[in-house]
Amino acid sequence: MKEDLNDWLNQIEEEVIDPNQRIIDPHHHLWPGPSRTEGTSSSFRYLLEDFWSDTNSGHHIIKSIFVECGQGYLEDTSKEYAPVGETEFVLKVSKEAKRKKTFTQIEGIVGHADMMLGSSVKEILQAHIDVGEGLFKGIRHGASWDPSEEIRNSHSNPIRHIYLNENFQKGVSELDSLSLTLDAWNYHTQIRELSSLAQLFPNLKIVQNHFGGPLGIGPYTNKREEVYELWKDNISELAENKNVFLKLGGLAMPINGWGWHKRKIPASSVELYEKHKDYYLHSIKEFGAERCMFESNFPVDKRSISYRSLWNAFKLIAYEFTQEEKDLLFYKTAESFYKL
Fold first, then answer.
1. For residues 150 and 217, is the Cβ–Cβ distance under 8 A?
2. Mutual orientation of helices 166-177 and 122-132 as an angle, nearest 10°?
3. Which of 268, 289, 299, 305 could form a disulfide with 325 if both were Cys (CB 3.0 to 4.6 A apart)?
4. 131 in a domain, yes or no?
5. Which helix (H) or strand (E) holds 158?
6. Does residue 35 surpass a pLDDT of 80?
7. Between β-strands 35-37 and 40-42, what pairing exists: parallel, antiparallel or unpaired?
C-alpha cells in the first residue's frame, strides 16, 4: 500500500456526477490493524473517520453494509466463537457513527462463521444475532481457492470445492433456517459450484461478491479474453438461480490484473468505465437491476481508484438506465436484500 495513498489518489480530480443520487454501499471493510482479505494484504488502518472521509467526498452515501475481514476476533474463547468479536466491534463503530447522523450510517453487518462446522454452526450464528442488536444480516465464509501459489486464497483457508462439501452444506442449511444471507466470495473458476449450492437452497438469499472474482494474475496473466468468456458463460448460468444476487464492484483489486495499483497515476472513472463496462452490462442484462447492487469494496479497491471516481464510474455505467433501474442498482436492491 502506498504510504501517501490519499495524496496519490487526489491526483485525479473529478466533478461528482449526479450528486443527489441516493446510494447504499453494500460492501466495505474496517481495519483497526493488519488484515489479509480479498486477495490483498494490508498493515494500514481504515476506521470510521477514514470511511467517512471517502463517503463524504461528494456522493450521497446514506447507509452501508460492513462485510467481514477477520477483524476484532475474540481472544479468550474458542476458535469457533472468535468471529463473534467482529460483530461486536462493528456494532460499537455503528453506535459511534450515530453521533453524526447526517454522515453515512453502518446499518448492516455481514460476519463470519465457519460453515465447515456443519449443523453445530447454529450456536455461533445465534451468538452473532444476539450481540448484533438487529444489525447482523448474515455471513461470508470466503471460498476463494486456486491451486496457484501466486494467488492468495481466502483468509478462512477454504478447501477445494468447498461449496460441494457436505459439512459446508449442512452449515448453510442452518443459515437458511435462520433466514440469514450468504455473501459468496470465490474466484471465476468456482462460479459453477456456487450455482450448484444455490440450487440446493432455493430459499436462501445469496449474493455473489465482486462479479465472482475474474482473475488476472499468476497463471491467468495475459489471458483476459479467455477468462472473460468463461466468466461470462458462468455468470449467465448463475443468474438462472433466482435466489442469487450480484455485487457489482471489486474489479479493481490487484488480483484482477489491471495493475492500476502500481502506476504513478490512479485510475479515473472514465478508464474504469472503458475497461470494465462489459462485465457490468452483461451482469445487469442477465440478473436484472432488481438483483444487482453497486459496491465499493473499500478500502481494497482504494489501491487503484478513489471513492469519488469509483462511484462516478458506476454512474457512467448506469447513464442510459431508467431512474427506477438506477435506484435499484444504487440502493434499493441492497436495501431489500439486507432488509435495511
1. yes
2. 40
3. 289
4. yes
5. none
6. no
7. antiparallel
- How far is the C-alpha of 243 from the C-alpha of 15, rounded, in Å? 37
Chain centroid offset of residue 177 CA: 23
Residue 289 belongs to domain spanning: 5-9+20-337
Q: Which SS3 state, helix, strand or coil, does residue 127 take?
A: helix
When divided into structural domains, the chain yields a total of 1
Question: What nine digits make up the cell of 13?
Answer: 480530480
pTM above 0.90, yes or no: yes
Residue 14 in any domain: the answer is no
The whole-number average pLDDT for the span 149-153 is 94
Cell representation of residue 67: 462485510
Q: What is the CATH number of the domain that holds 242?
A: 3.20.20.140
In the block, which residue shows the cell 450455482?
A: 195
CA distance 113 to 124: 7
Q: How many helices (H) and strands (E) does the chain have?
A: 11, 10
Q: In what order do the strands lie in the sheet with 22-28?
A: 22-28, 60-67, 105-111, 136-140, 181-184, 206-208, 244-248, 292-294
Tens-digit pLDDT profile for residues 259-272: 999 999 999 999 99
